Each structure stands twice: as C-alpha cells, then as structure tokens.
Amino acid sequence: MFIVSGANLFGQWFSDKIILEGFERVSKECAETNFELDRAKLVQANWSYNIFDLDGTLFISGSWKRKDNQLIRLPLPEGIDKDASKNLLVAGNDRNIVLVEPEKQIIWILDLKFEKEVQKVIFTSERPQEDTERMTKRTKKINQVLKVVMTNNSCVYLKCVNKTTEVYTGLMPSFFDTDCCMGKVIDVQCGYEHYLLLTDTGKVYTWGNGRRLQLGHGNIDNQDRPREVRALGGINIVKIRAGGWHTAVLSEYGDLYIWGWNNSGQLGLKTRAQRRKEAQEGAVVKKKTHRVPTVVDIYDEELNKITLNVLDMSCGSKHTAILLADYSIWITGSNEYGQLGFPIKDCTHMEHFVKVFQGTKDSYLKCGPWSTVIVK
Questions:
Q1: Interval 103-140: pLDDT, tens
Q2: For the domain that residue 292 is a member of, what is the CATH number?
C-alpha cells in the first residue's frame, strides 16, 4: 500500500490531481500490462516518473517519451536475458536510467532524451594490479555490484570484491579510492553535489561540494577524497541518507543527526517553542545552515519532548521525513509541492518536525525530490 503526498505533475501517482496536498492512498490495476500497484515495490521516485518492480518486471509510471500519465513496462536493451532481468539493480534521473546486472557486472545506460541510444559498459576494477592480486590470493574471486544510487547530478556504485568493497562514481563508473576509510564500505548515498558513505565500523565519510555545508566538516571547502565526519566520532552510525544539500544519519541508539542547508527548514532543528515565541514577538529570524552534525529533538504540540527512537528516515530535495518507534511519521522542510501533507496555501514550509501520519509496524519511508511516500 502506498500513501503519498506531493508532486504528481506527470501522473506518476495515478491521480487526476497534479498536487497531492494530503497523504492519500493511491492504487492502480492495469490488466493490459498486468500491473498491480499494491504488490509492486517502489524502486525510485523521480521528478517526472517513478520506477516500480513487480515480480521482477520493471514498470515506468509518469512521463515517458514526452508523454505524461504513462504506465508501461520498461523496455529492456537487447542483450539482457530474461533470467538476469529479475535481479537488475536500477536507478534513474531525468536524463538517464541505469540498469546493472550485478553478477555479470554489466551496466546498461538508457538515454531518456534519445530513447534509442543505449550504452553498454563492462565493470572493470581500476585498482593497481598488485592490490588486486593480493586481495584475491588464496580466496575464491567474488565480484558483484551491490548498489547504484543517482540524483540528477550524481551517480555512485558500490561493488563487492571478495571480502571487501569498492566505490565507483560517475554515470560511466570511475574507481574512487576509499582506502583512507576505516572499515568496509557498507552503504553509499549521494545528494545533488555531495556524496557520503558508511563503513562497518559505524563511521561516516563525505566528499564533493561543500558550499552549503552539507559535508559536515564545519566549512564550505570541497573535498576530492572521502573525509571522516569527525563530529560523529565515538558514535556508531547505522543508517545514512542525503537530501539535495543536506545530510541525515541515524545512530545505533536511534538518535538522528542532521546538517547542511536549512533554507526551508529541512533540518527540523527549530523547536515549537521557538516558533511560537517568534510568532508572538513578530520576529523574523534568519534561517541558519548547520555546519556540523546536530542531534534532532522532537516535541509534540504541547511542547513535550518526544523520547522515542528514530527507526527510519528519508530525504527529499528540501524536506526530511522520519519514522519513530511508535510508527508515527514526522516531517519538516519545504511544502512547495505539498510534500509535507498540508495544503500549500496554508503552509509553505515547516522548521520543526510535526506528526503527519500514524503508520504501522511494516511502514517505511521513501521520499522523492518533491514527494513523500509511506509504504505499508
């Protein structure tokens, strides 16, 4: 079941409304394509289209070949066999869709502007030969792509090589040296201009453009190599997420740390009490960008502090959603397209987390750039 709020300008959520301003259940059954939304898995929510996986078959909803309100099976390039298609890794943006055959390490890049153009790329390690020989000595060689994530400006791959992992960046993957990181890389994420990774030692490393302080190092310097977010030193991080220009991570104890650009309140660090005081005094307080990770405190409408752990979080371009231990869903940031679940005329943005929905034990979150999806 999908509960959605936010942009639907291209009909990707099977509704006549171009903006879903409150969380609504969306559904779709199509006998022609043998599609049932309630059984499908949402692979990615983009600006103009969504990608769904139903029993190993990929579907596109929304804009396709410059036509809106489409629901089609994603045409696979010639050369992908039927068995391999059920295990594809998929990511996409407004310009390309990337399909990866994990075990064969083959990448297929579909150009959405020129639909007939398909590039085939073979994954090859760019490590020095002596390192490759040392890593494979006395072990069975195992190579497999584990993950690919994309935004309109960034792409990053995570690949398993024997007992370790490698990171590659760029649409055409280029090996990215992470040997300076402590531990094995277990997850990668990317924003519009920055990247982050998580290692099995619970440490977070970031790199890329730091002009909006999204790297968490306390300055606006760019980083060409992964650098540990030292403000998180001693904290075991278990989950990482990237917004457009902000970053959120979750500790093993359920604490949410967040930093970066806060122009729309997407960090959720202002309390309800501060908001009320400003409203009473008529004060206009300049929004701040937070340089380093800051723990998020959440308050209910009576200004009582919520002490529940955070279970899950997801970030859009300028908003953040979290799932608490009681399965309630809270949200903050821009409401430009109704992604917070409120009418746009009544609420342009929120600067603190507010409860918007009561989920269930099986609920999880997946934000698009300008939408929020609750999956139950």
A1: 999 999 999 987 678 999 998 766 655 454 554 444 45
A2: 2.130.10.30
